Amino acid sequence: MISTRRGRWSGGILLLVGGVIVLFPYYWLAVMATNTTADIYSTPPKLTFGSHLVENLSLLFSKIDFLGSLGNTVLVAVCTTVLVLFFDSLAAFTFAKYRFPGANLLFGILLATFVVPTQLAAIPQFSIMAAFGWVGDVKALIVPAAANAFGIFWMRQYCRSALPDELLEAAKVDGCGFFRTYWSVALPILRPALAFLGIFTFVNAWNDYLWPLIVMVDSRNTTLQVALNQLNSLYGTDYSMVMAGTLLAVVPLVVVFLFGARHFIRNIAAGAVKG
């Protein structure tokens, strides 16, 4: 009994320490956003909130088109996430539950793209976007990211273990075609995997910097990460202003993560209860 209680206390303390370590960078970000750059450089550093948040945000909005960049980023992240969830889950369902000539070869080629650095694809991808006339347009950020190898691999592995063949046979007996089986039978079971993939894709699209920097040649029509980088100056950087912009950029990610994680855990728990 005593050892069990000690184990609980030890586990609670470890969780508390881990939570502090994980959350402290966000607290420090908020502190820097509400103080001045001089306060950030002070020794010892100031660990309490200041009263300069409104001033820093006003300076931020005067330096860059924050709301326009935010709108572009939201559009790109949402559209990319929706397209990836659809195309990756559809391809994964096909690879996992259907046999067709060349399936293994095609999936092997797909996995091989994992070892290719994304930077190597920047030049040919830019050439393709230029041929389409999409350079400087948000379509150049959405369409190339509409599907990816990781999402297909992840969804295929989950689909093979979570979706029984007997259920698909029953749907076929009931007269369901391929797409009806995918939409009405497979997708409800794949929700936990879709929740994870949705969070992963949204965060990657939101934080992407290199490709928007290359293809969005007009600095007035760019994404949030590139716009925030424009705040860095050769002769000095107002870090309190940069941190205020970073704080606003992080808030949507936290909201999406909390919503997606809750949905993911709820579906996992429901599956465990049903099982």
What can you see in these coordinates?
The protein is mostly helical and 275 residues long. It has a domain at 64-230: MetI-like (MetI-like fold). It has 14 helices and no strands. It has helices at residues 2-33, 37-41, 53-63, 66-97, 103-112, 122-132, 139-142, 149-162, 165-173, 178-189, 191-207, 210-215, 224-229, 239-274. Helix 4 packs antiparallel against helix 11. Mean pLDDT is 87; it is low at 271-275. Residues 70-260 form the ABC transmembrane type-1 domain. Keywords: Cell membrane, Membrane, Transmembrane, Transmembrane helix, Transport. It is found in: Cell membrane.
Question: What brief labels describe this structure?
Answer:
transmembrane helix; globular; mainly alpha; MetI-like fold; cell membrane; MetI-like_sf; 14 helices; membrane; 275 residues; Carbohydrate ABC transporter permease; disordered C terminus
